[in-house]
Amino acid sequence: MSQFEVAATDTSKWTLAIHRVSANTAEVWVGTLYPDLRMPDLARIELTASDGTRQIHEIKRDDWQRPFRYMCKRFFYIHEFDGLRAGVNYEARFFRHVDSLVGILPAYWQDLRSGYFTTLPERIPAADEKPFVIGLGSCFFPNRDGGHAASSYKALYERGPDTAKPDITFLTGDQVYLDIGFDSLSPVSSEIRERVANDYAENWRALGSFLNRGGTWMLPDDHEYWNDYPFYDSPLPTLLALKIAPIRRAWTKAARDAVTNIQRTKPVDIFSIGEDLSICLADFRTERQEKGFSPEKSFKQVTDWARNLTCPGVLVISQPLIVEKNSMERNLLSFPGQYKRLVQALAHSGHDVVLLSGDVHYGRIASVPLGDKGGRLIEVIASPLSNLTGLNGLATATANSKPRKFPDPNAIEVEGVPSVAVEYDKRFRVSTRKGHPLSFVYPRERTSEHFMTVSFHRKSGGGLQLNVEAWRLRERGAGNLPKRDFEKKYSVVLR
User: What was the pLDDT predicted at 4?
Assistant: First the structure.
């Protein structure tokens, strides 16, 4: 490749993603998911702190890895920087080395992508400081997004008020919809792998400003695999090919490669902000089976975390817990054994648990007393980042007030956790937009595209203040920032 060709390269096809960060470390993912870019012989990541302190890590040709087995194109590299300082702003930049063109131009480093993040604080900030803010979103279908999701997030991150600028982000599933489209019917394994890889390439380019601003944790839900994964009894015609075992195996391998190597999902991920807040992310989708939504080893990590809370907790999963049983496809209540044990574990400590989730194509906040020790479950759902369109748009939804009680007495009885009324405040339902039955784009009423910010600060008299706001991704307000959806913040003091 000549230097003139390099200069013309579309750098948007390169990715720099900030994955999980801690107070002292940060995981940086660089590379490309496009098959037409050439693997650099030499590249580097530069990490610069706000005071100018810099670390440089070089990447040689043999260091690159392939995100998908059996595919010789597309490549990535992950480096974990350590020795960082808590609560400090950092900039990461990704470069590749371009050889000299003898007698014409000297060798140089081409700047490909950049990213920004703040390491976790040593404890939750006080009331007079910038709060610790989590961005929350799920369900991204790129067809009519037009860049709204990423640009709105970028605007809030760069110019928004401190009370709503995300420090980290949780994307809780359906970052891609691999199973939508009749091309998913291919019986050829190589075409399945190409389909999965191409969908990720396009979605990661569209979501770039989410991925390179603040540490990002991602959980898969079913559409990172297929509708109602891992089950394949769906009558959807686009999924009929899954009944053929070789096709199902090829699809599963490619999808799992992406979840592992691109989304960087762990079965369980637990970390704390000092002694003020404990956070647990659990993948209840990838290893789901008939007998439960999580393998016992991973499930025990989650229930042990919940039972041993000594402060408020945040549980991040890809499907809500406050649900009715779904006769169309499986939700967590479809697995009553683990559902009961999870609810009992969450009620055990008496501390409040904030549950962050997505999946259901509506946004709302619900709360309910949890057991007899004074704890509460506060469930925050943010879905979608971008709505489904066309025939798939029939799967849109709007928030309701069901079940009326939790745990739902019509579906389950949980020993030691009485069923009590759920509080659904209509002020904290995300707005909706009308559809039309003759529309080729949006045939049904749908929830406005949005993400939420979930913030925490310490109150001077004790306890943690929780504030939640929803942001419309396709409408701008003051300062050209995404428009607030709730008329006021959802606010509660956690114990």
Answer: 45
For residues 112 and 144, membership in a common domain is answered with no
Structural domain count, the chain: 2
The pLDDT of residue 171: 98
Confidence bin at 462 (pLDDT 50/70/90): confident
Tens of pLDDT, residue by residue over 229-279, are 999 998 888 788 899 999 999 999 999 999 999 999 999 999 999 999 999
303-349 residue pLDDT tens: 999 999 999 999 999 999 999 988 888 999 999 999 999 999 999 99
Q: How far apart are CA 221 and CA 286, in angstroms?
A: 8
Q: Are residues 279 and 345 in the same domain?
A: yes
pLDDT digits (tens, 9 = 90+) for 393-428: 988 999 999 999 999 999 999 999 999 999 999 999
Same domain, 153 and 195: yes
Is the Cβ–Cβ distance between 108 and 98 less than 8 Å?
yes
Structural domain of 256: 122-494
Give the CATH number, domain containing residue 49: 2.60.40.10
Picking from 87, 117, 147, the residue at the C-terminal end of a domain is 117
Q: 105 has which bridge partners? A: 101
